[in-house]
Structure formats: C-alpha cells, structure tokens
Write a structure and sequence with these properties.
14 helices, globular, 2 domains, MetI-like fold, 0% strand
Length: 271
C-alpha cells in the first residue's frame, strides 16, 4: 500500500511539473497584465479570444503559422519516403558496406547541427533560395536521419522475410513489395518517425533564423523571438504567442502518442 502511494506521488509530481508551466501560459493569455502580475496563479475572469485574433491578423502570426505547417509537413513527408526506403533496403538486402553505411548514418547523431552552418548556408545561397520557404524545406530534409533509420530499420526487420519472398515469387517488384506488403505492416514505426520529424522541424529555430529575413518566409519560432523582444512588456500577447507556437505540437503528440509508443516498442527499446 505504501509503495503504491509513493509511486503515485512521484507520478503526480512529474505530471504537475510537466503540465503546470504549459497550463499556466495558456491561462495567462486570457488575463490582463495587471492580473498576471498581481495574481499569477488565479483563474482568468473570462476567456476572451480577442488577443489571439489580433495576434493572427495584426502581427501576421497566421502567415508564420502557415509557413511552419508547410515547411514541417512537406519536409517530413519527403524525408519519411526517402528514409523508409533506405531503411527497407538496409533491413532486407545484403550488399557490400551495408554495416558501414548504417554506422555512418547513425554517427550523424554525434555531429552538432551548427557545425553544418557554412555548407548549408552556401548551398542555399547558390541555389538562390535564401529567404524562401523552399530553401528551408530542403534543409530540413536531412533532419532526423539517424533516429528515423533506427526506428524504421527495426520495424522492417520485425516482418518475416517469407512475406517479401512470397511477393517476389508472385512477380511483385521492388516498389510493389515495398508499398503493398511492407509499408502497411510498419505503420506504427512510420507514424513515430514522421511525428518526431514533424515536431523537430516545427520547433527548429537556428536554421530558420539564419536562412530567412522577411515575414513571408519566417516560421513561428523565429517570429516568436522577434515578438518577445519587441513586446516583452505585453504579457498577455506574449503568452498568447507562446501558446500558438507550443500548443499545436503538444496536441499532435497527445493525439498520436499511442502510435509513437507502439513504434518505439517495436524497436525493442524499453523505457
């Protein structure tokens, strides 16, 4: 009995320190500056969404939101297609240097992203894609490479080889076997890799700030940094901006957490 009470106490404590800051930010966005400063832990007197409307229209946050959605979605989908086919080849076929290739891919986890600044900046400038959402989308294509390969390779390896061999005997080629036989069986791994890549791209700040300079190309994290410096005195708008940036990712993960957990479980990694 005492052990259960202790375990639930620890769990409640972890939940509180994780959820409370986010909940406080959301609730504070509905309070005035005076309420935030005088009674920071109180419940808002009313829930007025005018500050969010002003944020999306007057301060162009709707454009930043669309930019982030486009860049994170397109880059994640293209990356997922490329990484999944790569993981399929590594998991299913034998070829010279296979182990070396996989090791080199996973070693990218040890390379700081900032160390790639000069070559990435030069590439984007030479392609004429500076301050262009397409340039940022291309840069994000390599994000999450090692993590995705690890998850997807484990997912493909969990499928009996006999299924692929049977499909090949029936005359199915590489693409048909991949898309019709293997992809439906690794949906959890694909969902996990895709969601984690999307969240990483959605929250990325460094390259977004480096490769964009106008409102037409800025993403939400970059816009938030400008907004924070210019409107640091307006706590209501500041917390509303934080909510717009943070809440979509939290909602996405909350809705898809079951798929993420199943995908991680399929790799054999225990939490």
């Amino acid at each position: 009995m005492k052990k259960n009470i202790f375990m639930y106490s620890i769990l409640l404590f972890v939940v509180l320190i994780s959820v409370f800051p986010i909940l406080w930010i959301v609730l504070s966005s509905f309070k005035s500056n005076g309420e935030i400063l005088s009674t920071p832990l109180s419940i808002p007197m009313s829930f007025n969404f005018t500050v969010y409307f002003d944020l999306l229209t007057e301060y162009n946050f709707f454009q930043f939101f669309l930019n982030s959605i486009f860049i994170a979605t397109v880059s994640s989908l293209i990356s997922l297609l490329i990484f999944s086919m790569s993981a399929y080849v590594i998991a299913r076929f034998e070829f010279p240097g296979k182990t070396l290739f996989f090791i080199l891919f996973t070693l990218t986890l040890l390379v700081p992203s900032h160390s790639r600044t000069q070559p990435i900046f030069s590439l984007v400038m030479n392609l004429g894609l500076y301050d262009n959402i397409l340039g940022l989308t291309i840069v994000y294509l390599s994000a999450g490479l090692a993590m995705s390969l690890f998850l997807l390779k484990a997912g493909f390896m969990s499928i009996p080889e006999s299924l692929g061999e049977s499909a090949e005997i029936e005359g199915a080629g590489f693409l048909k076997t991949f898309f019709l036989i293997y992809v439906p069986l690794v949906k959890s791994s694909l969902s996990t890799a895709g969601i984690l890549m999307f969240l990483g791209n959605w929250n990325e700040y460094y390259f977004a700030s480096l490769l964009t300079s106008s409102d037409s190309s800025r993403t939400l994290p970059v816009a938030l940094s400008f907004f924070t410096s210019e409107f640091s005195y307006n706590y209501t708008s500041l917390f509303a901006a934080l909510t717009v940036v943070v809440l979509p990712g939290i909602i996405l993960y909350a809705v898809t957490s079951r798929h993420v957990q199943m995908g991680i479980a399929s790799t054999g990694v225990k939490g």
